[in-house]
C-alpha cells in the first residue's frame, strides 16, 4: 500500500472496527502473498491509519504494519488513538514469520487488552522522538471496569526510544526481548510519562497526575509470564517493583518474571555505565529519584528474587563499565556476571557497608567475565566458579565450592592474587594468568590443579606460594608454570604426578641459581613438593642440576623426570656437585652432559639425548672419571649422534642396562658396562639392533668390559674394538630371556677368536673378542604353493590362503639358525600354529659358516650358522588370525603374527525341510569346516600334543529367522558335533514359520539352508482341534478339518510375504496349490468321528 492515507481491507466487521459506516462491509477480502519458489513472502502495509476486516495471508513469510507519520499507536482495546490495531485486526493476520508493528515515526505506543493467538514472533517499534511503550489496562469509565490483560501466542520483542513500562500482566508464548533505549540517547535524565508529558522532572508532582520516570528505563510492575524462551532486557535503568491492582482496590500485585521452560535471562545496560547488584547496591531498591539516579544501573537482591527460571541468568554485558556486587544470593539457576565495556571494566564483589552480609552465594555455577579485573573481597560460595578476567583476579576472602566433577577456573591476562582460603572438594582448579599467580592462603582441592603464570610468555609472570600455607589436590595431578617461582609452603599431589615448567623458554636450575636467565628451584623449594613422579622442565633453553640428593626429594615417591624440549635444549648433570636421587629419567632434545658422578639409589635411570638432531655433537656426553649407577634398570639413548664416553667411565645397573644408540669412547682407558650389578642373576646388558659401541681410536689401552647375567648384542649391532681389548663375563650368553635349565651356560666366557669368513658382530681388535649367538631368523613361509611371508617382501600380494580344516596342509619354512652341527637335527625344531603343533616332516641344510670359541680353561668348540629349509604337516584345525611360531632348541623363537586362517565353515544342506514348531525336532546340518572334536570316550590329551583330542573347538549353532518375520531366531536346545562336515541341532520351540541354519566355529560364521515350521502358522492352530477329533460340527472330523484348513489357509496366503515363506516347504507356486498340500498333511490323520 502507499503510505499517505488510510489502508482499509474490507470485510464483514469493517463497520464494527471503524465504529462507523465505511461502506465496505460484506464478504471478507483477503491479501494473499504467493512468493516465487524458493523465496519467502513479505507483506508490508505503510499508511497513516489502518483498518483490517479481511485477512492477510502471508504463509511462512513476514508482515509489517507501519505508520507513515508521527502518530501515537494503540494495540488492543485502547480507544481514540490515531493508529489503532484491535485484537480482531491482529488476529486477521496469518503469518508464520514475524509480524512487525510500528516504525521510527511512532511517538508513543499503548498496549492493552489483547489476546493475539498467532504463534509467530511479534515485534513492536516505538522509536520516534521521546517515544515509549506503555502496557496498562484500559479503564472504561462508563461501565467502571478495566479491560483485559495482554497475551501473545509467540515471541514478543519491544523496542522503544525512552522506556518500556509494563503495568499490566503480560503472557508470552515465546522469548521476550526489550530494548528500552533503542537510540542510545537521552540517558541520565527524567521525563513525565502521562500527565503533562513534561520533558523533565524531579518527582511525580511535576507531572500533573503522570509519573516521573527515567529515560531509557525498563519497569515491570506486574506479572510477566514466558511459556517458552528467554528474557533479554537492555535498558539504562531497570525496576522490578510490586504495584497496586487497579482491578481490586488495595490489592498488591507481585512483580514477577516467570519463565516456565527454563529459558535464559540476560539483563544489562544499553549505554556504558556502572552496574550495582545485590543487597546493598548503593541505590535504594526501588526509588530511583536519588542523587545518583539515572546514572547507574541497579538490580537489587529484592528484584533478582522476582526472577524465576531454571535457566542461566546473566547480569551485565558489553556496556557494563564496572560492576559492584554487594551481597548476592541466587538459588534458581546458573549465574554469570559480565563487565566488558573496556579494558578498565571490573567486577568487584565488595564488602563496603555490609560486611558479611555482602557474601555471594550461588546454588549453581558462578561465572565472572571481565575485560578488566575481578576482585573477590567477600566470602563466595557456589558449586563451581569460573573467572575469566583479563586484568587479573584478586581473591582476599574465602571461596567455598560444593559441586563435583568440574573445575574452578581463573583465566586472566593480568595477575591472580589469592589471599583467602579456597575449599573445593568436588574438583580441581585452573589458574591461568598473563602475569603473576600469587597465593598466600590454603588451597584445598579434590582434582587437577593447574597454575600457569606468564601464560603469554612475555617474561613477566611468576608463580609464588608464600610461607604458612598448604596447596593440596588430594591425590590428583598438579602442573605449575612460571617465568620464575618461589615455593615456600607445601605443595602436595599425594600419589599423583606433578609438573613444574618454565614459561617462555628460559633456563631451569635445579638447585643451581641461574639468576635472571630463568627459574631457580633450590633444594629448599624441592623439599616442599610431594608427588609420585616429579617432572621438571618443558620448553626450556636448558636444565642444570647439581647437588640434589634423596633427602631433598623425600616427598617424591616415583621418578624425578627432567625434560628439555627444543632443538638447542641441553641438560647438565653435576656441574656444581654430584647428584644422588632415588629414580631419574632424563630427556633432552639437545645434549645431556653428565659432569659428575650420578647415583640412582632406589630404582631406574633413563638418559636420552639429541632427540632432535640440531648440531654435530653427541646426544649424551659423559665426562672423564664419571660413574653412573642405577639400583635397577638403566637406559642410555644419545639419539642419532650417540653417546660420548670420556676415560675411565663406569655405567652400572642393578638389573638391566640397555644401550639404545651408538656409543664411542673418546679417550684412553677402560669403559665398564655392567648389568645385574646386585648379582642376583636377573640383569641383561643389551646393545640394540643396528647400533655400534666403538673403543677409542688408535689406542692400544682402550678396554671394554661387559659384565652381566646375560649379554645380548642384537642383530646388526656391532662392537668395534679397533686396537683395544674386549672382556665379557656373563653366565647366560646370547639367548632370549626366559630360557633357562639345560640351555643355561654357567661358566664365565672369555672368547678368544672367530672365523674371518663369518660377517659377525664386530671388527677384530688386537686383544680379546667375542660375538653373540646368532638368533633364529625367519626368511620365508609357504603354505602349499602360496607365500605367506617373505623377508624380501613382508606383505606378499593377495591375502593368506585359507587352509582346509581336516588337516594335511604342508607348511615350508626357510630359516637361518645357530647350531653346534652344520646339519641341524629335525627333532630340535618345533613349529606351532596357535596352540596346535605342526609336525616337522623333513629339514634340508645349506652349507654352513663356522667359527670357534672357548670357555675359560676349555678347548675350542666349533659353532655353525646354517640356512635350513624345513617342512611340517599342519593338522586339522579351525579359526582365523593364527600366529606361527618356530623354535630351534634353546635359540630364540621367531613369531609371524596373524599368518594363518582356516577355511570358514560352509553349509550345503539342512534336513529335513520341515519340522515342528513345538521343538524337539532333529535337524542335520551338512557342510564342511566344522572342525575336529574329541570323541566323548577319548581320554583328555592322553597322547602327544598333536593328537586330535587336544584340538577341541567350540561349535555353536542356531536357527536364524527371516527379516519379514522380525528377524528372530530359534535356539538349538542341543548341538551334537558329528564330523568336520556334519552337525545335529535339536530344535527349541519356534514362533516363526521358517529359518536358516547359523553355524559359528572359532570366530567364523556362516548362514545357509532352510527349514520350515508349518505348525507355527495361524491356520494350523485354528484347525488343529478338528485334526485331533476334538471339535467336529458335522460329525466328520476329517471333512471339517479340510474345510477349515482350505478356508483359513487361502485367506492367510493372500499375504504375499507369508506365501513366500511357505514356498520352501514344498508347496505349490500359488495359494491354492500351497494350501492343498498343507491341508492334506494337517488333516490326513483326523478321525472320521469326533473323539469321545
From the structure above, extract its key features.
about 1100 residues; mainly beta; 31-stranded parallel beta sheet; eleven-stranded parallel beta sheet; 102 strands; flat
Describe the protein:
By secondary structure, the protein is mainly β. The chain is built from eight helices and 102 strands. Helix 5 (1018-1027) runs antiparallel to helix 6 and helix 6 runs antiparallel to helix 8 (1071-1083).
Mean pLDDT across the residues is 81
Task: Output the radius of gyration.
Answer: 46 Å
Query: Which structural category fits the helices and strands?
Result: mainly beta
The helix content, as a percent range, equals under 10%
The low-pLDDT segments are 281-294, 612-616, 731-774, 794-799, 852-860, 934-952, 1064-1068
* Fraction in beta strands: 35-45%
Shape call = flat
Largest sheet: 31 strands, parallel
Short description:
Helices cover 6% and strands 43% of the residues. The chain contains 8 helices and 102 strands.
Amino acid at each position: 500500500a502507499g503510505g499517505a492515507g488510510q489502508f482499509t481491507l474490507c470485510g464483514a466487521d469493517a463497520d464494527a472496527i471503524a465504529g462507523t459506516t465505511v461502506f465496505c462491509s460484506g464478504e471478507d477480502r483477503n491479501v494473499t502473498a504467493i512468493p516465487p519458489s524458493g523465496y519467502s513472502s513479505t507483506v508490508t502495509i505503510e499508511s497513516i491509519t489502518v483498518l483490517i476486516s479481511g485477512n492477510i495471508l502471508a504463509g511462512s513469510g513476514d508482515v509489517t504494519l507501519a505508520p507513515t507519520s508521527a502518530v501515537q499507536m494503540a494495540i488492543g482495546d485502547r480507544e481514540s488513538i490515531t493508529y489503532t490495531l484491535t485484537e480482531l485486526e491482529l488476529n486477521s493476520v496469518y503469518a508464520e514469520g514475524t509480524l512487525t508493528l510500528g516504525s521510527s515515526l511512532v511517538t508513543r505506543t499503548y498496549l492493552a487488552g489483547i489476546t493475539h493467538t498467532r504463534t509467530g514472533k511479534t515485534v513492536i517499534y516505538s522509536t520516534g522522538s521521546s517515544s515509549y511503550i506503555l502496557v496498562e489496562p484500559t479503564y472504561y469509565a462508563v461501565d467502571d471496569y478495566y479491560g483485559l490483560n495482554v497475551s501473545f501466542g509467540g515471541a514478543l520483542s519491544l523496542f522503544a526510544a525512552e522506556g518500556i513500562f509494563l503495568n499490566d500482566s503480560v503472557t508470552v508464548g515465546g522469548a521476550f526481548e526489550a530494548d528500552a533505549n533503542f537510540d542510545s540517547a537521552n540517558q541520565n535524565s527524567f521525563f513525565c510519562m502521562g500527565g503533562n508529558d513534561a520533558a523533565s522532572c524531579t518527582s511525580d508532582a511535576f507531572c500533573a497526575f503522570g509519573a516521573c520516570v527515567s529515560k531509557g528505563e525498563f519497569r515491570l510492575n506486574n506479572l510477566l509470564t514466558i511459556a517458552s524462551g528467554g528474557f533479554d532486557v537492555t535498558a539504562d535503568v531497570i525496576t522490578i517493583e510490586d504495584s497496586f491492582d487497579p482491578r481490586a482496590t488495595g490489592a498488591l500485585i507481585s512483580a514477577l518474571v516467570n519463565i516456565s521452560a527454563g529459558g535464559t535471562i540476560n539483563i544489562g545496560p544499553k549505554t556504558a555505565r556502572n552496574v550495582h547488584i545485590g543487597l546493598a547496591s548503593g541505590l535504594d531498591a526501588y526509588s530511583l529519584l536519588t542523587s545518583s539516579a539515572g546514572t547507574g544501573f541497579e538490580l537489587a537482591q529484592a528484584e533478582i528474587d522476582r526472577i524465576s527460571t531454571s535457566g542461566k541468568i546473566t547480569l551485565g554485558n558489553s556496556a557494563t563499565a564496572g560492576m559492584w556486587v554487594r551481597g548476592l544470593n541466587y538459588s534458581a539457576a546458573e549465574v554469570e556476571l559480565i563487565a566488558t565495556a573496556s579494558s578498565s571494566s571490573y567486577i568487584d564483589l565488595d564488602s563496603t557497608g555490609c560486611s558479611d552480609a555482602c557474601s555471594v552465594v550461588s546454588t549453581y555455577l558462578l561465572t565472572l567475565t571481565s575485560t578488566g579485573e575481578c576482585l573477590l573481597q567477600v566470602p563466595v560460595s557456589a558449586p563451581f566458579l569460573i573467572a575469566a578476567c583479563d586484568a587479573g583476579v584478586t581473591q582476599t576472602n574465602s571461596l567455598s565450592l560444593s559441586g563435583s566433577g568440574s573445575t574452578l577456573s581463573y583465566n586472566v591476562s593480568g595477575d591472580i592474587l589469592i589471599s583467602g582460603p579456597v575449599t573445593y572438594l568436588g574438583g580441581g582448579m585452573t589458574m591461568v594468568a598473563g602475569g603473576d599467580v600469587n597465593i598466600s592462603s590454603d588451597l584445598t582441592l579434590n582434582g587437577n590443579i593447574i597454575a600457569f603464570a606468564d601464560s603469554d610468555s612475555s617474561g613477566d609472570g611468576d608463580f609464588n606460594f608464600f610461607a604458612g600455607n598448604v596447596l593440596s589436590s588430594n591425590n590428583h595431578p598438579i602442573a605449575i608454570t612460571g617465568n620464575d617461582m618461589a615455593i615456600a609452603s607445601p605443595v602436595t599431589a599425594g600419589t599423583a604426578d606433578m609438573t613444574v615448567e618454565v614459561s617462555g623458554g628460559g633456563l631451569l636450575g635445579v638447585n643451581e641459581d641461574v639468576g635472571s636467565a630463568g627459574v631457580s628451584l633450590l633444594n629448599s623449594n624441592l623439599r616442599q613438593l610431594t608427588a609420585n613422579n616429579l617432572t621438571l622442565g618443558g620448553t626450556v633453553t636448558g636444565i642444570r642440576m647439581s647437588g640434589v640428593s634423596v633427602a631433598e626429594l623425600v616427598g617424591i615417591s616415583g621418578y624425578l623426570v627432567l625434560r628439555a624440549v627444543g632443538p638447542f635444549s641441553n641438560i647438565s648433570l653435576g656441574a656444581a656437585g654430584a647428584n644422588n636421587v632415588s629414580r631419574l629419567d632424563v630427556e633432552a632434545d639437545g645434549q645431556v652432559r653428565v659432569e659428575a658422578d650420578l647415583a640412582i639409589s632406589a630404582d631406574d635411570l633413563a638418559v636420552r639425548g639429541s632427540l632432535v638432531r640440531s648440531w654435530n655433537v653427541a646426544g649424551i656426553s659423559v665426562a672423564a672419571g664419571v660413574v653412573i649407577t642405577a639400583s635397577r634398570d638403566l637406559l642410555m639413548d644419545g639419539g642419532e649422534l650417540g653417546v660420548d664416553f670420556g676415560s675411565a667411565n663406569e655405567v652400572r645397573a642393578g638389573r638391566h642396562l640397555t644401550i639404545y644408540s651408538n656409543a664411542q669412547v673418546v679417550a684412553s682407558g677402560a669403559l665398564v658396562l655392567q648389568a645385574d650389578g646386585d648379582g642376583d642373576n636377573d640383569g641383561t646388558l643389551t646393545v640394540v639392533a643396528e647400533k655400534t659401541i666403538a673403543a677409542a681410536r688408535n689406542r692400544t689401552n682402550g678396554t671394554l668390559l661387559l659384565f652381566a647375567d646375560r649379554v645380548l648384542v642384537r642383530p646388526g649391532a656391532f662392537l668395534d674394538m679397533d686396537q683395544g681389548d674386549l672382556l665379557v663375563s656373563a653366565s647366560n650368553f646370547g639367548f632370549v630371556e626366559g630360557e633357562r635349565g639345560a640351555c643355561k651356560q654357567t661358566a664365565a666366557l672369555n672368547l678368544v677368536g672367530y672365523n674371518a669368513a663369518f660377517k659377525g658382530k664386530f671388527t677384530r681388535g688386537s686383544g680379546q673378542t667375542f660375538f653373540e649367538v646368532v638368533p633364529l631368523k625367519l626368511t620365508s613361509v609357504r603354505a602349499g604353493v602360496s607365500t605367506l611371508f617373505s623377508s624380501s617382501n613382508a606383505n606378499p600380494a593377495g591375502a593368506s590362503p585359507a587352509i582346509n580344516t581336516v588337516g594335511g596342509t604342508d607348511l615350508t619354512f626357510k630359516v637361518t639358525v645357530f647350531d653346534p652341527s652344520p646339519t641341524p637335527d629335525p627333532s630340535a625344531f618345533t613349529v606351532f600354529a596357535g596352540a596346535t603343533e605342526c609336525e616337522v616332516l623333513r629339514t634340508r641344510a645349506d652349507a654352513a659358516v663356522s667359527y670357534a670359541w672357548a670357555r675359560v680353561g676349555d678347548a675350542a668348540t666349533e659353532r655353525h650358522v646354517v640356512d635350513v629349509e624345513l617342512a611340517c604337516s599342519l593338522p586339522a584345525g579351525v579359526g582365523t588370525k593364527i600366529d606361527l611360531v618356530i623354535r630351534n632348541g634353546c635359540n630364540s623363537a621367531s613369531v609371524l603374527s596373524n599368518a594363518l586362517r582356516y577355511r570358514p565353515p560352509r553349509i550345503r544342506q539342512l534336513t529335513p525341510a520341515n519340522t515342528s514348531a513345538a521343538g524337539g525336532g532333529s535337524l542335520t546340518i551338512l557342510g564342511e569346516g566344522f572342525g575336529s572334536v574329541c570323541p566323548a570316550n577319548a581320554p583328555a590329551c592322553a597322547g602327544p600334543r598333536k593328537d586330535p583330542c587336544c584340538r577341541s573347538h567350540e561349535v555353536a549353532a542356531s536357527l536364524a529367522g527371516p527379516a519379514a518375520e522380525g528377524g528372530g531366531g530359534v535356539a538349538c536346545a542341543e548341538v551334537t558335533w558329528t564330523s568336520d562336515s556334519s552337525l545335529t541341532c535339536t530344535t527349541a520351540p519356534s514362533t516363526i514359520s521358517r529359518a536358516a541354519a547359523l553355524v559359528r566355529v572359532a570366530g567364523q560364521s556362516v548362514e545357509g539352508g532352510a527349514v520350515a515350521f508349518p505348525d507355527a502358522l495361524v491356520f494350523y492352530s485354528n484347525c488343529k482341534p478338528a485334526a485331533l477329533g476334538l471339535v467336529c460340527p458335522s460329525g466328520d472330523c476329517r471333512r471339517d478339518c479340510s474345510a477349515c484348513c482350505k478356508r483359513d489357509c487361502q485367506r492367510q496366503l493372500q499375504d504375499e510375504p507369508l506365501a513366500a515363506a511357505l514356498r520352501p516347504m514344498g508347496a505349490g507356486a500359488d495359494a491354492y496349490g500351497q494350501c492343498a498340500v498343507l491341508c492334506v498333511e494337517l488333516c490326513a490323520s483326523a478321525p472320521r468321528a469326533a473323539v469321545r
